[in-house]
Design brief:
One of its GO terms (molecular function) is cyclic-guanylate-specific phosphodiesterase activity. This is Diguanylate cyclase/phosphodiesterase. InterPro entries: CBS_dom_sf, Cyclic-di-GMP_PDE-like, EAL_dom, EAL_sf, GGDEF_dom, Nucleotide_cyclase, Rev_trsase/Diguanyl_cyclase. By secondary structure, the chain is of the alpha/beta class. Helices cover 40% and strands 22% of the residues. The chain contains 22 helices and 23 strands. Helix 2 crosses helix 3, helix 3 runs parallel beside helix 5 and helix 19 crosses helix 20. It is globular.
C-alpha cells in the first residue's frame, strides 16, 4: 500500500461563512493518480490495512497543508471504522501534527461512512478520546448515508456535513423539510451544519433561507492544489439578496427568537503568542492581506492583546517605525481585547461597540468560550449588515395592514413544535360574512375592522409567552398556542365585541389540538383545520369548535346550532 500512497496528491477546498462571505476553514481532499479514494480504501480493506491506509492519508493531508502555511482550521477525513479500531493506529496522526506545528484544536476530523460497520460503543469511545485530546469532530455524509441521528445526538459533533445529494435535491419539499429538522437538532446539540456540494445559486439561496451558515462547493470555490484562504463570495451573496431571488426560495430562515448570535458571524482568529515581536506580526499581516488584525494569546489560548491592522501598520511603516519596533514586543502597539461570550447575541455585541471609544469602533471583537479561550473574531461591519438584512426580511414578511407576520412564520413555529414533540393547539380565526361587511359599509371600514382584530389578537398574546399570531391574508388569522394557554387566550378574544361602522360582527374559530406524534407537518395541520372551520362557520354567533387529529369528534365550545355558513 505505501507505493500506492506515493501517487496520492491533495486538493484543498475552502468552507465559507454565508453570513460574512469569508473562508473559515479548508478541507483536504485526496486525489489518487488512478481511481478514487474509495477504490484505494477498498483495496486496503481487502489487504487488511484499512486503518493504516486511512490514517496515512490523513497524515499526508496534514503535511501537504503545512507546505502552504495557512492558519485556518484544516478538515481531514477518517472512516468511522478507523476511529473505532485500535487507538494506536492514530499515533501517526499525532506525530504529523507535532511535526507540522498544528494544534489538535486546529484540526477537524470528519468521520466518514459507513457508520454501521463500526461498533457503536467503540466508535463513541474513539470520538470521546479524540475530543479529550483537543480535536474537533465532524460527522460526514449526514442525510443520505447510514449515519443514525441518535449518533449525532450522542456525540454532539462540532460540525455536521450535509450530504451533497441532499443539497442537490433541496428544491424537493421533503428534502427541504429534512434540512429544517436537522437544523433544529443541531441547534439543540450546538453543532454547525455545513452544506457540501453547492453547485447552483438556487441551492445556495435555499440553504441561506434555512439558516445554514457554512457551505462549500464548486459554485463558491473549486478544490485546488493551492488553498484559496483569502477568497470571498460577497459577490454571489449580494446577488442572492436581490428581492426577486429571495422570492424564489421556499421559506424564511429558522432564526432564533433573540436574533442571530455572534458566532453566526465568526471568522477564524489569526493568533500569535503574547510574546510575539512586531516583526512577526508584520510578517503575518503581509502574507494575509484579508486579515484585519492579530490576537495575541497566552499558553492556554486566552486573548491578552489585539493588534489592529491599520493602526499597527501606521506605526511600523513610518521613517523610523521598523527600526524602532521590529524586534520589540508587539504588545506595545496592541490594545486590550474586546471580548464577548459565544452565547451572546449580535445585538449585545453592538451594545459593546456603542460604548467603545470612537478610535476602536471598527475593531474586531474576540469571541471566547466558557473558559475564556479564543474561538475566533467577529467584525462589526458583518454584524451590522447581517442585522440590517434580518430586519428587512422581517419587515417584508409582515402583513401591511396589521403588521403581523404571515403564514410562513406560523408554518415555522408549527414545524418547530412538531419536531420538539410539544402538545399545542393551532387556531384559524376569521370574520363571519366579511364580504358582506365590505359590500355594506365599504372596504375602508373593513380594513379598520381587520386592524382592530389584529390589535386585539396581538395585545391578548402579550400575556401568554407561548402564543404566536399570524395574519395570513384577508380576514384570516392563525394562532399557535400551548395547551394551557389556548382556552383563556381564545376566550378573551371572542369575548371582545367587534363592529364595523356601528354594525356588530361575529367571529368563527376552529382549533386543532396536536399531541406529540399526531401530526407530521404544517401542511397536514392546515388540511385537518379545513373541515373544523366549515363546522364553526355553520354555527350562530361567535363560534368556536375544537378537534383532534385522528378523531371525528368535534367539541362545540361556542355558537348556536344550524345557521347557514356565511
Amino acid at each position: 500500500m505505501p507505493a500506492l500512497l506515493d501517487d496520492v496528491r491533495f486538493a484543498f477546498q475552502p468552507l465559507f461563512n454565508l453570513n460574512t462571505g469569508g473562508v473559515v476553514a479548508v478541507e483536504a481532499l485526496a486525489r489518487p493518480h488512478d481511481g478514487s479514494v474509495q477504490d484505494l480504501l477498498r483495496m486496503a480493506f481487502r489487504a487488511g490495512y484499512l486503518a493504516n491506509t486511512d490514517v496515512a492519508l490523513a497524515c499526508r493531508a496534514v503535511r501537504h497543508a503545512a507546505d502552504h502555511d495557512f492558519t485556518l482550521p484544516l478538515h481531514v477525513n477518517l472512516l468511522a471504522m478507523t476511529i473505532a479500531d485500535k487507538p494506536e493506529h492514530l499515533a501517526p496522526l499525532y506525530a504529523a501534527l507535532r511535526d507540522t506545528g498544528r494544534a489538535p484544536s486546529n484540526l477537524v476530523v470528519e468521520v466518514g461512512t459507513p457508520y454501521t460497520r463500526a461498533p457503536r460503543p467503540r466508535l463513541v469511545k474513539g470520538l470521546e478520546r479524540l475530543r479529550a485530546d483537543g480535536f474537533r469532530i465532524g460527522l460526514d455524509g449526514v442525510g443520505e448515508g447510514d449515519s443514525p441521528l441518535s449518533l449525532l445526538a450522542e456525540v454532539r459533533p462540532d460540525v455536521v456535513k450535509l450530504d451533497r445529494e441532499v443539497v442537490q435535491a433541496i428544491a424537493d419539499p421533503a428534502r427541504f423539510a429534512l434540512v429544517q429538522g436537522l437544523q433544529h437538532l443541531c441547534e439543540a446539540t450546538e453543532s454547525l451544519v455545513v452544506a457540501e456540494g453547492v453547485e447552483t445559486e438556487e441551492q445556495l439561496a435555499a440553504l441561506r433561507k434555512l439558516g445554514v451558515r457554512l457551505a462549500q462547493g464548486n459554485l463558491l470555490a473549486e478544490a485546488q492544489r493551492r488553498p484559496k484562504v483569502n477568497a470571498t463570495i460577497s459577490a454571489v451573496l449580494s446577488e442572492l439578496n436581490d428581492p426577486e431571488a429571495v422570492a424564489k426560495t421556499m421559506t424564511q430562515p429558522l432564526r432564533r427568537k433573540s436574533g442571530p448570535k455572534v458566532t453566526d458571524f465568526l471568522h477564524p482568529a489569526t493568533t500569535l503568542p503574547e510574546s510575539a515581536t512586531s516583526e512577526e506580526v508584520r510578517d503575518v499581516l503581509a502574507t494575509q492581506p484579508t486579515v484585519s488584525g492579530v490576537v495575541l494569546v497566552d499558553d492556554e489560548g486566552r486573548p491578552c492583546w489585539t493588534v489592529d491592522r491599520n493602526r499597527f501598520l501606521l506605526a511600523v511603516t513610518g521613517p523610523f517605525g521598523h527600526a524602532l519596533h521590529a524586534k520589540r514586543e508587539a504588545a506595545r502597539l496592541a490594545d486590550k481585547p474586546r471580548v464577548i461570550g459565544a452565547e451572546s447575541s449580535a445585538l449585545e455585541m453592538l451594545d459593546i461597540v456603542a460604548n467603545t471609544g470612537r478610535e476602536r469602533t471598527n475593531d474586531d471583537l474576540v469571541v471566547v468560550d466558557d473558559e475564556d479561550k479564543c474561538l475566533g473574531v467577529v467584525r462589526v461591519a458583518d454584524v451590522v449588515r447581517g442585522i440590517a438584512e434580518m430586519k428587512v426580511e422581517q419587515a417584508a414578511a409582515l402583513n401591511p395592514l396589521t403588521r403581523l407576520p404571515g403564514s410562513e412564520s406560523i408554518a415555522r413555529e408549527v414545524d418547530r413544535r412538531i419536531l420538539a414533540g410539544d402538545i399545542f393547539a393551532v387556531g384559524w380565526l376569521d370574520v363571519d360574512s366579511f364580504k358582506r361587511v365590505n359590500d355594506s359599509v365599504g372596504f375602508a371600514a373593513g380594513d379598520d375592522l381587520i386592524r382592530a382584530l389584529g390589535r386585539t389578537l396581538s395585545e391578548g398574546a402579550a400575556a401568554y409567552p407561548g402564543v404566536q399570531v399570524g395574519h395570513v391574508g384577508g380576514d384570516d388569522f392563525l394562532v399557535v398556542a400551548g395547551l394551557n394557554e389556548v382556552v383563556p387566550y381564545a376566550a378573551g378574544v371572542l369575548d371582545h365585541p367587534f363592529e364595523a361602522e356601528g354594525h356588530a360582527v361575529t367571529l368563527s374559530l376552529a382549533t386543532l389540538v396536536c399531541a406529540a406524534g399526531t401530526v407530521g407537518s404544517y401542511r397536514e395541520v392546515s388540511r385537518l383545520l379545513a373541515p373544523l372551520k366549515e363546522h364553526a362557520k355553520s354555527l350562530r354567533g361567535n363560534s368556536w369548535v375544537l378537534g383532534r387529529p385522528g378523531s371525528d369528534h368535534v367539541d362545540v365550545l361556542r355558537g348556536g346550532p344550524h345557521l347557514a355558513a356565511g
